[in-house]
Specification:
It contains 10 helices and 10 strands. By secondary structure, it is of the alpha/beta class. The chain has a single domain, classed as Rossmann fold (3-Layer(aba) Sandwich), CATH 3.40.50. A 6-stranded mixed β-sheet has the order 6-7-8-3-9-10, sandwiched between helices. Strand 1 and strand 2 form a beta hairpin. The longest helix is centred in the middle third of the chain and has 14 residues. Bound molecules: adenosine-5'-triphosphate (ATP) and magnesium ion. Adenosine-5'-triphosphate binds next to helix 1.
Length: 286
């Protein structure tokens, strides 16, 4: 069996104060799938994700990663396989400098110093945060902490990426950069998010949680076309699919949408590629 798969069977969890956060959740994730986990505040998304790398243990049911059950004894191998970006970056960053935080995981994998340094530079470059390398993480802005937290996971090169609100608090360019990065991965990806446009763009399948129960596990287009499901789960359509607030015109259903017309910049690039204009090749990214 591929070690990039996830199997969750009848998973239930309650916090020590008795709050029942998950109730009988079951689903399977195949190698290379990108899955969104959506739901209102308190629906159980973070609690579910924290079971995927053994931060929490079920009171009932099981989680398997690539056929290996998540137990105390398997945690070292599970943590190498499943890279988790926590909802709160402060849970992820604890070293004196960004470079040490990003290098912490690779160092613990036993890589030599030059291998660790290479992983740190590559991971920070991928999230455009090389300039933050020598800064103390606790002095960074919220968005800077978020991208550094993502870099700490990328540096581990895990087979499965689990991300809890990866775009929360990011400015539009940083959000777009993280989205392209996620889109470029062939890893199995599980992304809990309130950024429904991200889910619509990157994830072929969506799990909907409500009150700790899995109320839908369907293709993302179907989920966002199902207004009754969205309302019952305390959600709305992604902004990109909502009616125009001025004229009320409805956007077409996701499942019936024609492919978007090419962006003018892409057409310019095509022209450049055909040798029609050197200047636009250096135009700044929008
Ligand atoms: N440490 C804790 N102790 C007790 N209850 C908790 C704890 N953490 C979370 N909960 C409760 O568990 C339920 C699920 O919380 P969880 O954080 O998983 O929701 P979520 O879907 O991630 O929400 P959000 O969208 O706000 O991040 C909520 O009712 C929450 O109040
Ligand atoms: Mg959460």
């Amino acid at each position: 069996m591929s070690h990039h798969t996830i199997s969750v069977v009848d998973l239930s969890f309650a916090y020590p104060d008795g709050t029942r956060a998950l109730d009988g959740v079951s689903f399977e994730v195949g190698h290379g799938e990108a899955i969104a986990v959506i739901g209102a505040n308190g629906a159980g998304k973070s609690t579910l994700l924290m079971h995927l790398n053994g931060v929490l243990s079920p009171i009932q049911g099981s989680v398997d990663i690539g056929g290996t059950p998540v137990t105390k004894g398997t945690l070292p191998v599970i943590r190498r396989t499943v890279g988790m970006v926590f909802q709160d970056p402060d849970d992820q960053l604890f070293m004196p400098t960004v470079a040490e935080d990003v290098g912490f995981g690779p160092l613990n994998l036993g890589l030599p110093p030059e291998g660790v340094a290479r992983r740190v530079d590559e991971a920070l470059a991928r999230v455009a945060a090389a300039r933050l390398k020598d800064r103390p993480p606790y002095h960074l802005s919220g968005g800077e902490k978020r991208v550094v937290a993502i870099a700490t996971v990328l540096a581990m090169e895990p087979a499965i990426l689990v991300m809890d609100e990866p775009t929360s608090g990011l400015d539009p360019r940083a959000r777009r950069r993280v989205m392209s990065l996620l889109g470029s991965f062939e890893h199995t990806r599980i992304i809990a998010t309130h950024d429904l446009d991200l889910a619509a763009e990157l994830c072929e399948r969506t799990l909907v949680l409500a009150g700790g129960r899995l109320v839908a596990d369907r293709p993302t287009g179907e989920v966002f076309d199902d207004d009754a499901l969205l309302v019952a789960s305390g959600l709305e359509r992604p902004l990109g699919m909502q009616a125009c607030p001025v004229c009320g015109a409805q956007k077409p259903a996701m499942s019936s949408r024609a492919p978007a017309p090419a962006h003018p910049r892409d057409r310019l690039r095509a022209d450049v590629g055909a040798g029609l204009g050197e200047a636009v090749a250096d135009a700044p990214e929008q």
